[in-house]
Amino acid sequence: MTAPKTPVTCIVADDHPAVLEAVAEYITQGGIEVVARGRDGEEALEKIEARKPTVALVDVRMPKLGGIELARRAQ
Q1: Rounded CA separation 19/54 (Å)
Q2: Is 9-74 a domain of CATH 3.40.710.10?
Q3: Could you tell me the residue ranges of all domains in the chain?
Q4: What pLDDT, on the 0 to 100 scale, is given for residue 70?
Q5: Is the pTM of this model over 0.90?
Q6: Is 36:53 a contact under the CB 8 Å cutoff?
Q7: How far apart are CA 8 and CA 35, in angstroms?
Q8: Where does residue 15 rank: exposed (0-12), middle (13-18), buried (19+ CB within 10 A)?
Q9: What are the tens digits of pLDDT across the range 8-67?
């Protein structure tokens, strides 16, 4: 299997710091670059708009803005 031509970048968002860091570390070990982390939906949306990651892995239930609404707004 060959590596993708364009590197996969990701933002991880979760309001639980331990989960946020564990998920980000796991993804990094898989060869995906975590370009940002968000502690709530609003922070994650700002970082998505600024960094334009290929993938966003977000918690469904977060303060300020849930993951489903975050996905709608980020499109």
Answers
A1: 21
A2: no
A3: 9-74
A4: 95
A5: no
A6: yes
A7: 10
A8: middle
A9: 999 999 999 999 999 999 999 989 999 999 999 999 999 999 999 999 999 999 999 999
